[in-house]
Amino acid sequence: MIYPFSTIRQQLATLYLRSGFERSLRHWSDRSHSENILTNIYDSQVWKTFKDTSYHDSPNFFQPEVADSHLGLMLNADWFQPYEGQFTVPV
């Protein structure tokens, strides 16, 4: 079996070449929302308080003025196993 692979660098380059991509990165800062209603990750405390560095007084990582360069990457695991057998993660 062959599984296609693309590096993060290749994926980011492809995304930035899309029309309007940088504008869409600022969507969270311009959207309307209701207080006390969580409708997206943008409403979470993690998003609002995540720091740029581990220093206590560092600025928040997610700020409207740097929304097109401060990207948060996440790993999505759906437990798909393209092979037979068990998979264990070393700890």
TrEMBL record:
This is Uncharacterized protein. The lineage of its organism: Eukaryota, Fungi, Fungi incertae sedis, Mucoromycota, Glomeromycotina.
